[in-house]
Design a protein that fits this description.
Blueprint: H1 3-29, E1 31-36, E2 46-53, H2 61-78, H3 86-92, E3 99-100, H4 103-118, H5 128-140, H6 146-154, E4 161-164, E5 167-170, H7 183-197, E6 202-207, E7 210-214, E8 223-228, E9 237-243, E10 246-252, E11 258-260, E12 263-265, E13 269-270, E14 275-276, E15 280-287, H8 290-303, H9 305-308, E16 316-322, E17 331-336, H10 339-342, E18 351-354
Parallel strand pairs: 17-18
Antiparallel strand pairs: 1-2, 2-6, 3-5, 4-5, 6-7, 7-10, 8-9, 10-15, 11-12, 13-14, 15-16, 16-17
Helix pairs in contact: 2-7, 7-8
The structure holds adenosine monophosphate and magnesium ion.
Length: about 350
């Protein structure tokens, strides 16, 4: 072989090695989604996704273990299905008995109280006796009377509850709370913090369909959010949005609805009437944290379309309202005025923007 051709062979070999090295480096750094699905979290499904460079995928174990530990701890403190939880102890307590709470439960109590003011009373964790009343109507198949409803409402409200120094007390034994409309959102935010503290720069936390995204998708782009058709099955999406860092929580009347006689009812109670809400098929709220999105999804289900015009800055929503004879399969889609700015890409066809009066 002459000197020229051996130099050429060297160059070709060097080039190939260079390409192989680039390929190896790209493969090592390509983003992958590591998925875990801890079973039965807060009585629902849970999906945790860490999006990391491929070479870090096997090092995500600690983050997942810490995330799951955080979820189980929150559940053990805030679930009203667990007898030993702080909430169950508070609900069972006698009048004027001081129940000390962990910092996290106390924080959620305070946020729930603030939310009651911010939503004009639509979000009210003290309506637990009403929730129990409607649950027993579901079991007995007998409608509660107006006086049952009034007395369940009178048994518990915020004026009966005192908060202070990481403890709660109540002035009447009958006051009870239910954190079902806020605890999931709180848990999602906590788990995102755990992932971030463990060096996970992108991902998704989903508890029962309530979600929070951070960083990028596995393609390095915005995350895609699908909004379910409330009249279809679980897989039927009607709208898709793209978002960066964002919490997206949905309250729908199809979730955990129940029947009394031949009437179907929502699991969300209007604290003012004491009855399950009607008309709003689903509300999806977009906010920077899941606690806020979770609260407002429930609150807007109560407030209805007028609530879209009263949303605080930084919170946006898409509301699907049941209408007889509406063009698209029995409901209309209404969006708060800031939604188009928050999501990436135009609003889907058929979404009407609800402008403040
Ligand atoms: P979500 O599905 O997030 O809207 O939460 C609904 C759950 O919150 C219900 O299952 C009840 O436990 C509780 N809840 C029902 N009505 C209200 C209300 N008006 N305010 C606060 N929590 C409520
Ligand atoms: Mg919710």
């Amino acid at each position: 072989m002459g000197r020229r051709s051996s130099r050429l062979a060297g160059l070709v070999l060097g080039g190939l090695l260079g390409l192989a090295a680039i390929g190896w480096w790209m493969n090592r750094n390509r983003l992958v989604a590591v998925v875990r699905e801890p079973p039965a979290v807060m009585g629902t499904t849970c999906t945790l996704i860490a999006i990391v460079p491929a070479h870090q995928a096997s090092a995500t174990d600690t983050a997942f273990t810490n995330a799951e530990r955080s979820l189980r701890l929150i559940e053990s403190r805030m679930s009203s299905w667990i007898d030993a939880s702080e909430i169950s102890r508070f609900n069972r307590a006698a009048a004027d008995c001081r129940i000390s709470l962990s910092e996290s439960t106390y924080h959620v109590f305070e946020k729930a109280k603030e939310a009651n003011d911010a939503t004009g009373g639509a979000f009210d964790v003290t309506c637990r006796p009403l929730i129990e009343l409607w649950r027993s109507a579901d079991e007995s198949d007998v409608m509660p009377t107006e006086s049952d409803i009034r007395s369940a409402r009178d048994r518990s409200n915020w004026s009966h509850i005192q908060l202070g120094e990481t403890a709660a007390a109540k002035s009447t034994k009958t006051a009870r709370v239910d954190l079902g409309g806020i605890a999931k959102g709180y848990a999602i935010d906590q788990v995102v913090e755990v992932f971030k503290a463990n060096g996970i720069e992108s991902g998704l936390v989903d508890i029962g369909g309530d979600q929070r995204f951070w960083g990028t998708s596995v393609e390095g782009r915005q995350h895609e959010v699908a909004i379910r058709n409330p009249l279809g099955d679980e897989e039927s999406a009607i709208f898709e949005f793209r978002v960066w860092d964002c919490a997206v929580c949905t309250s729908g009347d199809y979730a955990r609805s129940f029947e009394v006689g031949d009437q179907r009812f929502s699991h969300i109670i209007d604290p003012q009437t004491g009855r399950p809400v009607v008309g709003v098929a689903s509300v999806t709220v977009f906010a920077s944290d899941a606690l806020t999105a979770d609260i407002w999804a429930t609150a807007l289900s109560v407030k209805g379309t007028q609530g879209l015009k009263e949303l605080p800055k930084g919170i946006d929503a898409l509301m699907l309202v049941r209408r007889k004879g509406a063009a698209s399969a029995g409901f209309e889609a209404l969006a708060s005025s800031g939604l188009a700015d928050r999501i990436i890409g135009p609003l889907p066809d058929g979404v009407e923007v609800s402008k403040p009066d």
